[in-house]
Design goal:
It comes from Penicillium digitatum (strain PHI26 / CECT 20796). One of its GO terms (cellular component) is mitochondrion. This protein has about 525 residues and is an alpha/beta fold. Helix content is about 35%, strand content about 15%. The chain has two domains: about 105-205, no CATH class; about 230-295 and about 310-505, Rossmann fold (3-Layer(aba) Sandwich), CATH 3.40.50.
């Protein structure tokens, strides 16, 4: 906000002007006042404000002190930046302890942030030493899992928690300094990445102002969005210039969710049927139907009565297995709406963890005949977007025909890191996957790593072989998060949000007629 002058200071300034200004200056001021009179309504409103302040004040109210000027401009911290940092780390920001960009590296145990010190205690209590001399604590889930190295005959030591912090990355990774030195070559593969994660987490908890978390509003239709990569997208969407790699990692950590959806569905998508474009002919058919609804032609719509036009129903994007993405600031999800200024969008978060990090919205609505599954509706998001959250499984709601019928022109499924082939979560998708294929609408999936993506593809191929068509060839997501994340239960498990991307759909069978008929 800009500076202002209170009534008391204004009176002091007027007295100084009367005492020092010459008579000619006073006459010119009087002439100017006669030429530009103040509106009586403004005087009444100004007087009513003064009277209301004087009547509403009480002797117990604190008065202004000499240490704080009453004419100082009012400044408030950005609520978007604070909420974004809280979402990314799950901890509050301490505005008193400000860390400079050249002082961001601290070991987790000796961190100036209480949240990171608490995180270090959690890692030490739950993470196990990855040295191959220890016995296995669980079955290895991938060849890159540190537990896969503990199958030799030398693994005779009992499991031990990770209490020793590497001096180079500051993360508890081994049980002792001896095991850290003995296995230093294996740790060196991810040590630099862990240090980067350490500094990024301290940056989020540094208490600094985050200008990168201010997002632009609606964009003119004449401006074309370039989605070749992150740089061209941020530039053509008129984001504030981000010249720091760390700030770029922080902002892409959240924007990867709406931008991953938009990069696939948009008519200017970087994925095409050309050589190396990864889009299959079947994918072009399905996405062309959605793009027809997302990019309607101009019809001369206006804000007056003559400009009223009929609109197509909103495009429904079902986000299944929603977790952290459902608690993102709504300004982040509005970036998806701004990519389709003439379309209506309806985001539907479905999953038992869809209310994670949203404790302020409890208790959930009661299940009534009008709202049988207790959905939380947010319909005041710019007028063209609506968000609904259901804490339930999709197959349970689909059996009740709650969302049917599905239209390939208006519906799409999005699965962020679903873990379709993960041993701990695959059983939850066995009943859902056949129902998704029956809808014949696009299903977009992402994965943390290449191994995670390939495991999901193999599981889908095993369960529904020959019953689905690949719409988008598996590969690295152009709009993946540039920030690496750390698994607190296994510090050597480093992943990236929405690293991989692929899409599929239930197979469509075309009727073939013989010539005799």
């Amino acid at each position: 906000m800009t500076g202002y002058t209170c009534v008391q200071c204004l009176q002091v300034l007027r007295q100084g002007v009367r005492a020092s200004a010459p008579q000619a200056r006073l006459q010119s001021l009087a002439t100017a006042r006669r030429r530009s009179p103040i509106s009586p309504s403004f005087i009444r409103s100004f007087g009513s404000q003064r009277n209301s302040q004087s009547l509403g004040s009480s002797p117990e109210q604190p008065k202004h002190t000499h240490s704080q000027s009453c004419c100082a401009p009012k400044s408030s911290p950005s609520s978007i930046a604070q909420r974004a940092a809280h979402t990314a780390t799950g901890a509050s920001v301490n505005p008193q302890a400000v860390l400079k960009p050249d002082n961001l590296f601290h070991s987790f145990s000796n961190s100036p942030s209480p949240a990171l010190r608490k995180r270090a205690e959690f890692i030490k209590q739950n993470a196990f030493c990855p040295h191959p001399s220890h016995q296995q604590t669980r079955a290895a889930v991938s060849p890159h899992d540190p537990e896969a190295r503990k199958t030799t005959d030398d693994a005779n030591l009992p499991p031990a928690h990770s209490h020793f912090e590497c001096p180079d990355c500051g993360v508890p990774v081994y049980c002792s300094e001896g095991h850290w030195m003995d296995d230093f070559e294996a740790h060196l593969e991810i040590c630099d990445t862990l240090r980067q994660i350490n500094e990024d987490d301290h940056d989020l908890n540094s208490g600094r102002f985050f200008p990168e978390f201010h997002y632009p509003g609606p964009q003119d239709d004449n401006f074309v969005i370039n989605m070749t990569n992150w740089d061209t997208y941020l530039y053509t969407r008129e984001f504030a210039a981000i010249n720091d790699d760390r700030s770029m990692r922080q902002v892409t950590r959240m924007l990867t969710y709406p931008q991953t959806i938009g990069s696939v569905l948009h008519e200017l998508s970087p994925y095409s049927v050309r050589s190396g474009g990864r889009l299959t002919p079947e994918g072009l058919k399905s996405l062309s139907a959605l793009r027809y609804s997302l990019h309607p032609p101009k019809t001369g719509e206006g804000i007056d009565v003559k400009g009223l036009r009929l609109k197509a129903p909103p495009v429904r994007i079902f986000i299944l297995g929603a977790r952290a993405e459902s608690s993102l600031p709504r300004d982040v999800w509005l970036q998806l709406q701004y990519m389709y200024p003439r379309a209506l969008l309806h985001l539907i978060f479905i999953g038992p963890e869809s209310m994670a990090n949203r404790d302020g919205e409890y208790p959930l609505p009661e299940r009534t005949p009008e709202n049988p599954f207790g959905g939380i509706v947010e319909d005041r998001l710019g007028g063209q977007m609506k968000i609904t959250t259901y804490v339930d499984y999709f197959h349970t709601m689909n059996k009740a025909q709650y969302f049917g019928p599905f239209d390939p022109y208006l519906d799409c499924f999005m699965l962020f890191h679903p873990g379709l082939g993960h041993p701990a979560s695959s059983h939850e998708w066995e009943e859902t996957l056949p129902q998704l294929l029956e809808t014949k609408v696009p299903i977009i999936c992402t994965g943390y790593t290449q191994w995670d993506l390939e495991r999901d593809i193999n599981w889908v191929s095993e369960k529904c072989r020959g019953e689905f068509d690949v719409l988008l060839e598996p590969g690295e997501n152009i709009f993946r998060s540039l920030r690496w994340d750390l698994n607190d239960q296994d510090p050597h498990d480093v992943s990236c949000g929405n690293w991989g991307l692929w899409a599929f759909r239930g197979k469509r069978y075309e009727a073939a007629f013989s010539k005799e008929e």
